[in-house]
């Protein structure tokens, strides 16, 4: 989320046409097209954040700026040359980093939470304990994971949140 994503579509010699067909999981489809005989580009229903990275007559690579969850979905580039049509399919998965927090509950137990991540984060503790993390799914496809530390023999506890978008750790004394 928030970064740029580049999807490569290899140019072919004597390319007559290049088209990106985009079908997001949410919202309607959009397309970008280029015709060499008219040296003309066309866009249908694409947001301003989706565009050619370079001049499409030289390189039909696609760039998505400020990637959001709405960009997730199928992307297909089609290059047309005299020898035929060449397709390059992609499925764009958008990672949403969780919002990690560590706090003490009313009973003085450390609680580690990784809110609204996609996919769900993994929570672990530096010292082993018998806690089973609980997951709560949200309508937007994100997941909140909550883990409570239940060992009683330590004063300072460290929670580790692991996620494809990055890792986080913090210590607390309850």
Automatic annotation (TrEMBL):
It comes from the Eukaryota. PROSITE patterns: IG_LIKE. The keyword Membrane applies. One of its GO terms (molecular function) is signaling receptor activity. One of its GO terms (cellular component) is external side of plasma membrane. Keywords: Disulfide bond, Glycoprotein, Membrane, Transmembrane, Transmembrane helix. The keyword Iron does not apply. Residues 60-173 form the Ig-like domain. Gene3D superfamilies: Immunoglobulins. It is a single-pass membrane protein. It is found in: Membrane. Belongs to the CD200R family. This is MOR1A protein. It comes from Stercorarius parasiticus (Parasitic jaeger).
């Amino acid at each position: 989320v928030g970064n740029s994503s580049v999807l490569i579509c290899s140019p072919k010699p004597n390319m007559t046409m290049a088209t990106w067909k985009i079908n997001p999981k949410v919202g309607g489809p959009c397309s970008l097209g280029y015709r060499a005989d008219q040296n003309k580009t066309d866009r249908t229903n694409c947001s301003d954040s989706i565009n050619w990275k370079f001049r499409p007559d030289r390189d039909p690579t696609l760039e998505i700026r400020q990637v959001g969850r709405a960009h997730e979905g199928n992307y297909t580039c089609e290059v047309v040359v005299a020898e035929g049509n060449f397709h390059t399919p992609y499925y764009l998965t958008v990672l949403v980093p969780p919002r990690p927090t560590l706090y003490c509950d009313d009973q003085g137990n450390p609680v580690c939470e990784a809110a609204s991540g996609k996919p769900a984060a993994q929570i672990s503790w530096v010292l082993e304990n018998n806690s089973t993390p609980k997951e709560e799914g949200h309508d937007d496809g994100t997941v909140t994971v909550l883990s409570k530390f239940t060992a009683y023999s330590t004063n300072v506890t460290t929670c580790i949140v692991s996620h494809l978008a990055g890792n986080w750790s913090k210590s607390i004394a309850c």
